[in-house]
Amino acid sequence: MSNLIVIGTQWGDEGKGKIVDLLSSKADTIVRFQGGHNAGHTLVVGDQVFKLSLLPSGVIREDKIAVIGNGVVLDPWKLLEEIEQLNSRGIKICSDRFLISENTPLILPFHKDLDLLREQKAGKEKIGTTGRGIGPAYEDKVGRRALRTGDLKDPNQVKRKLNIIKDHHDILRAGLGATDIDEEQLFDELMIVGKKINTFIKPVWKILNEQIKKNKNILFEGAQGSMLDVDFGTYPFVTSSSTIAAAAAIGSGVAHNKINSVLGITKAYTTRVGEGPMPTELTDSIGRYLSEEGNEKGTVTGRDRRCGWFDAPLVRRSCLLNGVTSLALTKIDVLDKLEKIKICVGYRIEKEEYTDFPVSTSLSNKLSPIYEEIDGWNTSTVGLEKIDQMPIKARAYIQRIEELSETEVSIISTGPERNQTILINDPF
């Protein structure tokens, strides 16, 4: 038995989807433990491309069990869209291999309304939310008024909770110039959607622990990246959930001492979507090259990702926070054509140097990167499957990342497809 957490070490979009899909071959169960459909995973299998934002990446392997844990906030209508998308492509989603925790909070239409209304009102102070209602849904969860998946099995409970939530949200909506919630219409819609997903709703925590007793392998799939964590990220430009490895236990019901290892996913450079500090961001021709060569557009929003050099202190911080046991390095092939490559090894504000990313936004917005420059390799790494095939200078770059992050690299992705991968050490 081996249980592995996969998390992003940067600001998300590190390529977790491909790596989770790859490792799913060795897992019995794949679990989403936080976030919602603000995540975006692109999977390439042969000539087929799958874009998912809610279902666990391993769901396309039909001999695996896919799970949405209680730490996720669930838009049931979006879920049904993704299920239908896969069903239409021959991947059948059924209750014997797809489970939803019975205490998973729901994202409702007025959560999305509130998300967008707040961003509009914020103007230049906007967070850069995806507008999918994630934050407001988490607010209702911690405010102890959330409607949860298990409630859908009891119409009276749905009515009672809707009344409570409506009272709260109508006040907020009035302040933002929106009309009251149509409670009756929403109730009818929830009864319809509830009938469609009820068979998936189970006591996930119990099932997962039973699997562990049977020595099954469980892969926990994180969403977003560590620097978007609500506690340890670039606050307030963060997501509304905890994105670090410790959240896997809380978001699934599996105790932390049942976790064996943590794989951190990192790009060979740095990207970010939305607002907030990013010290290594490049707005010049190199930044445009990384964007175009890496096809850096958000899977969920379609927004252009900001691109920059590899930020080593940021990744080292993530490795410490998550207890990362090894790294998976993605998109190294994007750097193939560059004559010179820079790595951020620290930061500077005027004459003061920083070896770690500061918590204060007032400081992090002023950071200037301290760079170390190395030679590029000017040789294609696309599709390489063995480390000894990697150019010497590319190997030197990887070794420097290991040294600066204080963590070994166990996987190198050399392209979007499953077989375009170098497996140095098995993270399981």
Descriptors:
Adenylosuccinate Synthetase, Chain A, domain 3; globular; 428 residues; single chain; Adenylosuccinate Synthetase, subunit A, domain 2; 12 helices; 19% strand; Adenylosuccinate Synthetase, Chain A, domain 1; 18 strands; 10-stranded mixed β-sheet; alpha/beta
Walk me through this protein's architecture:
Helix content is 31%, strand content 19%. By secondary structure, the chain is of the alpha/beta class. The protein has three domains: 3-101 and 203-261, Adenylosuccinate Synthetase, subunit A, domain 1 (Adenylosuccinate Synthetase, Chain A, domain 1), CATH 3.40.440; 109-197, Adenylosuccinate Synthetase, subunit A, domain 2 (Orthogonal Bundle), CATH 1.10.300; 267-423, Alpha-Beta Complex (Adenylosuccinate Synthetase, Chain A, domain 3), CATH 3.90.170. Strands 7-6-5-2-8-1-9-13-17-18 form a ten-stranded mixed beta sheet, sandwiched between helices. Strands 12, 14, 15 and 16 form a four-stranded mixed beta sheet that branches. A hairpin with a 2-residue loop joins strand 14 (340-349) and strand 15. Helix 5 (155-175) packs across helix 6 (183-197). The longest helix is centred in the middle third of the chain and has 21 residues, at 155-175. The protein is globular, with a radius of gyration of 22 Å. The N and C termini lie close together (9 Å).
Tell me the overall shape. Answer: globular
Radius of gyration, in Å, reads 22 Å
Number of strands: 18
Number of helices: 12
Structure classification: alpha/beta
The low-pLDDT segments are none
Helix content: 25-40%
Mean pLDDT: 93
String of helices and strands: EHEEEEHEHHHHEHEHEEHEEHEEEHEHEE
Main beta-sheet strand count, sense and barrel state? 10 strands, mixed
N-C termini distance: 9 Å
Please tell me the CATH architecture of the largest domain by its name.
3-Layer(aba) Sandwich
Q: Strand order within the widest sheet?
A: 7-6-5-2-8-1-9-13-17-18
CATH class of the largest domain: Alpha Beta
Count structural domains: 3
Q: CATH fold name of the largest domain, please?
A: Adenylosuccinate Synthetase, Chain A, domain 1
CATH superfamily of the largest domain: Adenylosuccinate Synthetase, subunit A, domain 1
Which band does the percent of strand residues land in?
A: 15-25%
